[in-house]
Amino acid sequence: MSPNNHIKKVAIVGATGTVGKFIVEELLKLGKHEVTAISRKDSPSASSIPAGVKVAAVDYSDESTLVNALKGQEVLIITMSTLAPPDTQLQLIRAAAAANVPYVLPNEWGCDMADEQLGKEILLGNSEVPARKLVEELGKSSWIGVVSGFWYEYSLGMGEQCYGMEVKDKTWTFYDDGETKINSSTWPQSGRAVAKLLSLPIEPETTGGPSLSSYKNKFIYVSSFLVSQKDMFASVLRVTGTKESDWTIKYEDSTKRYQEAQKKVFGGDRTAFPTLLYSRIFYKDGVGNFEARRGGIANDTLGLPKEDLDEATKIGIYRNENGLKYH
Ligand SMILES: NC(=O)c1ccc[n+]([C@@H]2O[C@H](COP(=O)([O-])OP(=O)(O)OC[C@H]3O[C@@H](n4cnc5c(N)ncnc54)[C@H](OP(=O)(O)O)[C@@H]3O)[C@@H](O)[C@H]2O)c1
Known about the structure:
It contains 13 helices and 13 strands. The chain is α/β, with parallel strands linked by helices. It folds into two domains: 3-149 and 186-221, NAD(P)-binding Rossmann-like Domain (Rossmann fold); 150-185 and 225-290 and 303-319, UDP-galactose 4-epimerase, domain 1 (Alpha-Beta Complex). The protein has a seven-stranded parallel β-sheet with strand order 3-2-1-4-5-6-11, with helices on both faces. Strands 7-10-12 form a three-stranded mixed β-sheet. Helix 2 (63-70) packs across helix 3 (87-98), helix 3 (87-98) runs parallel beside helix 5 (125-138) and helix 8 (229-240) crosses helix 13. The structure holds NADP nicotinamide-adenine-dinucleotide phosphate (NAP). NADP nicotinamide-adenine-dinucleotide phosphate binds next to strand 2, strand 7 and helix 6.
């Protein structure tokens, strides 16, 4: 194994963020990388950056601070808040090119955005496609898009608008018949996927062996579970010791629900966005089952562990019971 055939220096935006903190945790656990947090100079979470992570404080109004922070880095991971101004990610990508950073993992971390039509329908493509295109146009870096599906414990916890469950009221809204299977990942699995990906040899060390470079300007698909809402429901019954008859079940047509949410979002009601997003991914056309759609996932290549659905469900239930929301 050649020491020069592995990534050493990794920079991350969002080291203390929702998914970023799990990525950092797993990188530190593996202990193969030197991790630098690219963080705003006035970041409210500066004090939570874990020991063992270097900090490069930046000022997005001065692009030279971004370029300086990225000089010598081999990978830039962007887990940027969706609340940040739209140009923020593009600034980072321009700075990564100016600093000759070979790999950028841009804001993805969810749905299968290789499907550009889907990207338009769920609106996320509006920011993600230009980011990937800019990396390619600048020609100095390659992007790798990490597709993990919705975060499982988060989406279960988010309630009716997302995976449909409200624990306190014991109600569940199913899309269509509730049997559509989608890929979904836990936060730790998302973190492990990135840490393992960045531990692959840059170039293959055996003929056809795995390598980071094979994912240049491509998506990598990982998943914890391939589950339907009915599978989640069965898991919740096991975990809570409740019976199906204890719950009030509602079935909604996913297309109708999507269209109604779309009208609201286009009318300026951003609170309907999660309904739009989740309804569309649960369509029966299988866009949420990227495992089938893309002919497999990279879990084995990366050596990702199999996880226990009920353990992840427990966290989702806790989040739902305690009203833990996104931001
Ligand atoms: N799969 C899913 O279910 C799912 C769910 C939600 C989101 N996502 C995706 O995950 C990605 C990351 O989301 P997240 O929730 O992990 O991010 P986050 O925690 O909301 O924010 C990440 C970081 O963004 C930086 N930031 C915040 N506001 C900023 C601003 N105005 N300008 C510049 N930087 C700012 C902060 O870093 P510093 O304070 O260190 O500067 C923060 O720690 C997004 O692409 C989102 O679409 C996926």
